[in-house]
Amino acid sequence: ALVKLYASGVRMDARVDEGDYETYGVDHQHGKLVELFTGADTPVVSVWIGKNASGSTSFVRPSSGEEVFRADVGGRARYDRPPADWRQRLVLDADPEKMARILVSRGDERLVFSQIQGRWVLEAAAFAADAELTEVLAKALGRLRVLQFQNPAFEAGFDAPAADVEIEMESGERHRVLLGSRVDRGTAFVKVDEIPEVLRVSAQLGALLTLPVSSWRDRTMISIPTPEVAEITLTEQGITVAIEPADTGWRITQPPNMDADQLLVARAVEAITGLKAADIAPDLQFSPTGTRLVVRRRDGTSEVVELGAREQVGEERLVRARVVGRSTVYRIRETALEDVRQAFGRG
Length: 347
Prior knowledge:
This protein is mainly beta. It has six helices and 23 strands.
């Protein structure tokens, strides 16, 4: 940002004084000298940055002159940063699409995520892995940015780490990320490769690496590209509402003479065609209520979701659901279903 700012020279907004350097902080004792070189020994830009003026402007003085100006070069704090603040904070830059495997060791537990033809799978698992969640983990690891560098001796729980991660790239290159067991003010602490410092990072990474195995189970109930949809129906309390694609947007075909709120319906269609449960129910108990969603493809095949009982889980209201043809019992957030009902005129 500084190079871009100074590359075209410094544009002075106003001349404010001449000769009085100390009052404006542009003297050798209080000022900050900023110089831009293009290869020669003599800088092409050389100015002293003084005190804050107003807004994003500061007092400046060209080092070759005696006049003091006001210029939009940012506040003085921008130039008072300690050397450590200029350090590269992207400590791991590994393309998630070129990762081959992510190995996560947590005590005696070992999770091995492999990327096969662009899709993530969890090896030796009794269930299909949530590819979308695994992609989030791969991106969090691959684009690992530091919030703060801590002293190498900083106590962050590496004697008993929460997770030990090894990243294998397609090229054979390997990276190691060690997650400390300490959590502080919503952040996590890691060590990366041979970097000596303890690194304070986003709490998201710590949360992902400590998820229970069951959380990696795929929660996708429906996954149909919108152009393949021929019709969607919602049946509730014996009443069926059907929508289908129109020349522009969607139209309600049942019941007749009912107008569709295009914005609400578009959102509902997006939610239904990519329907994902909040979690997997801990058991297979399911009692259908008669409410069901049916998505019919243009090729004639359909996906049918039956809804069951509501239940309180922590602070959330969830609804049990089942995809016809599968034994898994899912739980969907009731708020998501309310939006769908509203779009179908059932809210």
